[in-house]
Amino acid sequence: MGGLLARARSGDEAGFLELWRALQPRLLRYLHVLGCDDPDDVAGETWFQVVRDLHKFAGDDEDFRRWLFTVARHRAIDAARARMRRHVSPMADGLDGLADEQMVEDQVLDGMSVKQAVAMLAGLSQDQAEAVALRVIAGLDTPAVASILGKSPGAVRVALHRGLRALAADPRVQALAADHGSGLPGQLAPWGGGLSEH
Amino acid sequence: MSTDFPGHRGDDRPGDVPGGMPGDLLGDIASSEPGLGALLGMLAADATPDELTGESAALAMFRATRQPGVPVAEPRLLGSPGTSGRRIGGRSAPAGRHPRRQARRVGLMAAAVTLAAAAGFAVAAYTEALPAPLQQAAYHALGFAGVPASHHPAPSAASSHAPGNSRGHGSSPKPGPSKQPSPQPSSSGPASLTGQASLSITVTSGRIVAGRSDTFTAHLSDKSGGVAGASVSLLEREAGQSAWQQAGTATTGGNGTAAITASNLTMNAVFRLKGPDGTLSGPVLVIVMPPVSATFSGSKAKTGGITASSPLAAPGNIVVLQILSGGHWMSLQMGRLNGTNQAQFMVRSRLRQRTYRVVLLPTASHGLSVSNAVTVPPR
Q1: Which among B22, B185, B186, B342 is placed 20 to 30 Å from A58, CA to CA?
Q2: Does B54 touch chain A if contact means CB atoms closer than 8 Å?
Q3: Measured between CB atoms, which of B9, B21, B351 is closest to A153?
Q4: By the 8 A CB rule, do B223 and B194 touch?
């Protein structure tokens, strides 16, 4: 991804698009976990700020991901505060699982969909969900997650451990074991660093 | 999960990465729990098509932002008429979903939640379990359905007291139920009570299938103990009705207790007892569940149908089609009962050979009801 980042910084559109394709899905999933009303909107604002300030960026792939998800978290906070100021009722928030017929079909036919997995993660407590999301979805290491959340690495590890244990205890997750066999953590992050020890 | 994220609003400028720290046990946990490993794999899986629908808008934003001298618009403005027509990174509707259908579905869901919430609110108000201000509001909003005002006694206990200073005789048992409208519960029958009397009511079930009966036990006591030979009346106030009706009478036995059965209950109702000298019990709520059935009507077409039927429910009531998956029931579609108290659900061919059921959502008039399970055969 380093090459893509360099190309995007130089203004290469194809390089930017490849970078966007690699990170946009993870950005949306993270924003879903945060409970954003409009993850697409917040992701758009995030990319706008990142592209605008890209010429000031200095760092590697990991640094870029950390920056991207930090910006996304702040824009999500802004969006949540704006919604509270508008006193918009989040009435439909809890209806997503019921309203998304396609998601139900996917789960029935395929065992579990990406959306369903994200929804399960969002069901954890906030600190656990964010720790797992930034670690697994964003592919950040523990110090980077701690930096984004403003917590100590130890606190992040505790939240991560508890969140993973809670997920592992879920009957729906246990049912996945029979369908998928043993998990291969090394395959989880295409850029090779998502689940390796740092 | 809350959308109000706590935490500091630190610097989000690029760079500034902390140094290396010892790692965590994520990989170990994932590898030791196969199901968890699979779940984490999904979270980090490749993009789904609907996650990349904003690509052209993102490219437009990149071009506009990176070109020197080109005014940079905020992302929301780029989605306004006259530009790309889409928000940056956004989409007007999820891929594969018709916006109007989605809006209709959300509308139905909202209505369902409203009704379900109203039903829950009504249940709490019926039993006077709401805090006083809410109870008062419920009295005004749902007074038609028999919600007591907040000044009524004993929010949770279905008993109340009445002062008494004489001891009398009980009346003979009378057959019930007989429904005679009465604006408010009032004192009835001669009774002799010593000191403060207490009349309590307990319900045998409290949740019954529509058309069945439920039995209420009265216990009348004063400072001397159980009061025998006293006449007590069972009063009923159905959802949607303003008046109390007498649903039966009985005479207390030697220990001050009496049992009264109300039969053929077809609607949620609150019950209370009226004893001698104005003694009133607290209210108890009986939830009635209309039977709902699910049947499959075969079809040679790609889609077959499941018919939900609930003769004792009301047209417009909401029913939810659920599908059994992995031992869990998942809600799939929603609909409303038509004029003949039926609703049709279409089952796609790819979801045949599955087991379904229908759930009738609760309203102020009835409780939640679940149908039989029906397995859709292959085409």
Answers
A1: B22
A2: yes
A3: B21
A4: yes
Kindly report the pTM of this predicted structure.
Answer: 0.44
pLDDT above 70: percentage of residues in chain A: 74
ipTM, 2 decimals?
0.81
Write the pLDDT tens digit of every residue in B321-352.
Answer: 888 887 777 878 888 999 999 999 988 877 87
Q: Does domain A100-181 have CATH number 3.40.50.150?
A: no
Chain B CB contacts of A176 under 8 Å are: 34-35, 38-39
pLDDT in tens, B263-309: 999 988 889 999 998 888 988 888 899 999 999 887 555 567 899 99
pLDDT in tens, B357-378: 998 888 878 888 899 999 988 7
Assign domain A2-86 to its CATH architecture. Orthogonal Bundle (1.10)
Best residue of A108, A109, A172 to probe chain B, by most B CBs closer than 10 Å: A108
> Alpha-carbon distance B274 to A58, whole Å?
81
Domain(s) labelled CATH 1.10.10.10 in chain A stretch across 100-181
The residue type of A186 is G
- Give domain B290-375's CATH architecture: Sandwich (2.60)
- Tell me which chain A residues have a C-beta less than 8 angstroms from the C-beta of B46: 25, 190
pLDDT at B374 (0 to 100): 92
CB B267 within 8 A of CB B247: no
Q: Closest Cα of chain A to B347: distance in Å?
A: 11
Amino acid letter, residue B40? L
In this prediction, residue B50 carries a pLDDT of 76
Q: Which of B66, B90, B334 sits opposite A51 (nearest CB)?
A: B66
Helix-helix angle A153-169:B34-43, to 10 degrees: 110
- Please, are residues B359 and B318 in contact by the beta-carbon 8 Å criterion? no
- To the question of domain B153-288 being in CATH 2.20.130.20, the answer is yes
